[in-house]
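Hey everyone, long-time lurker, first post.

I ran two proteins through the pipeline my lab uses and got sequence/structure pairs for each. Pasting them in order. The first:
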Amino acid sequence: MITTVNRVLLGLAGLILLALGGAVLATGLGLSVPSWWPFGGKGDVLLSTADRTRWRDEGWWWPTVIAVLAVLVVLALWWLLAQLRRGRLAEVLVDSGDGEGALLRGKALEGALGDEAGSLDGVADAKVTLTGRRTAPKARIRMLMEPHAAPGLALRGLSEGALAHARTSAGLDELPAEVRLRAVKHRADRVS
């Protein structure tokens, strides 16, 4: 989600800047520009003094400017915080019984869950991502199903096997999981 938003925003910003830069360059080189373009020659400025000060004495101008700038600041802060937030859980806090606790690497638990889920009958491959808090992790599991697989049996095996083992070994009361199933692409069987 974040990478999609980043790509869209960067693409739009790039297109806008490219269009504006090209138009300014065309005007500076003396090429013809549309009649609605704000300046038409090498000596012109983008905004004249009259354009810059036209709305200054209106009562709505400054509140509107401040509101637009505040929205831009909030959006920029949201974007910055989204960049800093991790998509994966780095570690899981395991209750060791001595009141201290131990830290289990998130990648280790993801690997163990993925290996066990991938070994189920009818599952070609499984990818696991842990999200949430380190005291309450959540699993996102993508399973690639073989053509002969029974999804119900695979989900039951995942729930009763891999997820139950992960909960028990990490000492978690619960480990909610979102599972996405996808079929392996294969050629149609020939019938003779």
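...and the second, right after it:
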Amino acid sequence: MYPAHLAAAAGAPVPGPGFLSPTGVEIAFLLVGLGTLGAAVITVTTKQLVHAALWLVVALGGIAVEYLLLTAEFIAWVQVLIYLGSVVVLLLFGLMFTKAPIGRSPDADSGNRRVALGVAGTAGAALVWVVVDAFRTTWINLDGPAQGSTKVSGEILFQHWVLPFEALSVLLLAALIGAIVLSRRTTPAEDAADAADAAARAGGQEEQR
């Protein structure tokens, strides 16, 4: 096959991009994607809640790297600031406030593994089909201008995706309220222990008097 510039000089049609000749960026994109998928699988299969939160950090960080490889720097930094800097921190605070066990949690597993696997597989297949069908003939010029700049992202977001954006803000607010509710919830044993501590403190103060 002739190089692209020789083919253009000879008047022959310039061959377009293909899957059989991947570039270094495309190979890096594939490798990072596989690592992100592995981190996501470990997140939902590990029985240690803290480890699940940390592997979630790896998965979300891998998605940010994917955005960088797609020349969407602004979206990548939004991914880091919002998801890694806010959502994961909120999740870790929720685990600490609810006194989640540090080690293995046998009760963290669910008996609906097959149903969950079926739903996840169906959702993943549908998402892959939608993306492939939408971008089947679309190629991103990684050497051109950034596709995820602030101007481009703002125009698309506030012209076509205003309602989903507002719904996402309500979802984050609901997650924050849920974390506060879980952090204030106590068991009967904890209530009894708090009452005993309060009674002991009151008795100690009376003796000092």
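Reply from user beta_strand_b:
Welcome! Quick read of the second one: Confidence is low (pLDDT under 50) at residues 1-8. The radius of gyration is 25 Å.
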